[in-house]
Input
Amino acid sequence: MSYYKIENLEQYFKHYNKSIREPRKFWSKIASENFTWYQECEKVMEFDMSEAKIKWFVDAKVNIVKNCIDRHLARKGDKTAIIFEPNNPNEEAQHISYNDLYISVSKMSNVLREQGIKKGDRVCIYLPMIPELAISVLACARIGAIHSVVFAGFSASAVEARINDSACKMVITSDGGYRGEKTIDLKGIIDEALTNCPSVEKVLVAKRTNAEINMKEGRDQWLQPLVDEASDNSVAEIMDAEDPLFILYTSGSTGKPKGMVHTTAGYMVYTAYTFKNVFSYEENDVFWCTADIGWITGHSYILYGPLLNGATTVMFEGIPSYPDFSRFWEIIEKHKVTQFYTAPTAVRALAKEKLEYVLKFPLKSLKVIGSVGEPINEEAWHWYNDHVGGKRCPLVDTWWQTETGGILISALAFITPTKPTYASLPLPGIQPILMNEKRNEIEGNQIEGSLCIKFPWPGIARTIWGDHQRYKETYFTAFPGKYFTGDGALRDEVGYYRITGRVDDVVIVSGHNLGTAPIEDAINEHPAVAESAIVGFPHDVKGKALYGFVILKESGEYRDRTNLAKEINQHISDHIGPIAKLDKIQFVSGLPKTRSGKIMRRILRKIAEGDYSNFGDTSTLLNPEIVDEIKEGRL
Ligand code: WTA
Output
């Protein structure tokens, strides 16, 4: 019996139980039967949760790109691997076959080698959603270089911090990127970032917009001529199961971004397995995940998961509102998409527009629709289910994180009955538990608590680049020996999970994780600002938006507060990126603080939400009078 594909609900429970009772047997069978190894593992897993040390498929040797591409060539070399849909609908889509992809990735991997990149070197990829992005990621993995993709919406100083944190040797970027009607000067941003990045030796530049750009002698080269010259014969590097595959930065509730490190074999097995089962993938399906490859969703479910299964995956360069709000639906129709996977914020934005935009398209090709990135509210769930899924496609609400590598809790399409706003049941291998404030597990159903996972799964990130201590402290100490997700959840009467949102100082805005501390740091650098505190508040499209409480210095120079608010947002945009801008900025004379000097964010959150009902215990506040002042000035 194979464990790779779950066929029905009864089998789900059977596999689930097996995966809990005998995790080693369960995963070793999946790994051994569904992938190509140079050498299979000696031991399926080894772990010590108290030290946050986890290994899967110990001593196995493998190359993930051989599994994504080479092994499919004999049977489906001509099959389309990637459909590239450009920003401009009048530009022709590209169908990149597995053969084409093999050649492009092999050539690109030789370019990297010729430019001095070796196994273990870090390469920063700062590209728009064009084929070169997919090809660069896979080329790194082919030669064992560690890719660090930075979302091409981040500002120069955010890119700089990420490049320096992992000491990248190379940056791959483009002359620019398209986004709806705008073009973005990516090379200009890289030039600015690189004034402070001593580790970067080479910059390769893909052509996309033909914008005039600066090429720095000795550092920058156009990519295409190098690719044209390169050989398409590239031996894949033999990687150890636990060699790092990539670094991907995610916001923390404090301090600098965390470079989550994913390793090779466990990530491979887990993304392939979850892709197959959650989306019920079958051979001729066309899968479209609308995320950007700059986020984990794009890594796992635009590239690795689909390619490992030999699927056809769509890569879309543009945005849902360009040229108009029917773009997504037009693309589904055009490429006969069978599985469509997007974020609640996109659903809410599109649901605000005229219904004709979606009703114009029958969308009969669709079989499964999915949601990821934040809780999906009831209204958005129904709109998506009724008008996109036509009430016939299962809607899988998939809960997971950058740190988890792949989906942990979700319905399996056509197998698990769905329930609006519930991610539903854990995947095989995943043991969620809910914890109370006393840090004990709460047993039984109809309960709510902090969501932890009590046993490792193959896709879990292994460390934070350069800071294992922080990894251990962030994820394994709040509830000793358990992986703490940072999310709250409830479990209903039948054991279904509903994710209620973050319980730490991370706010999810339009599906993007934003740590409040780095934004506060950026604001506090403005010369007029003394101190600030940021909280999230509900927003009908973004899910959550940011509300900033700002104390000004007393110099009195800045009387024009409207302008000052604009300047503060510009400052945030320059330091982090436009996604972190504040929707509301209220100037205050103080912030509610405890006697130990900690800002009581709970109160600020309530004020931002306009909920004055229950502030809880304010007796420990040093300055309780400030609460009324802030309430009165609420925007
Ligand atoms: C949130 C994205 C509710 C959650 C894959 C998590 C969700 C954070 C869901 C991780 C969902 C993601 N329902 N909340 N289906 N999916 N989240 O690292 O708070 O960008 O901790 O990974 O998004 O965001 P990240």
User: Anything to note?
Assistant: The pocket of WTA is lined by residues 250, 295-297, 371-375, 397-402, 423, 485-487, 499, 502, 508, 513 (CB under 6 Å).
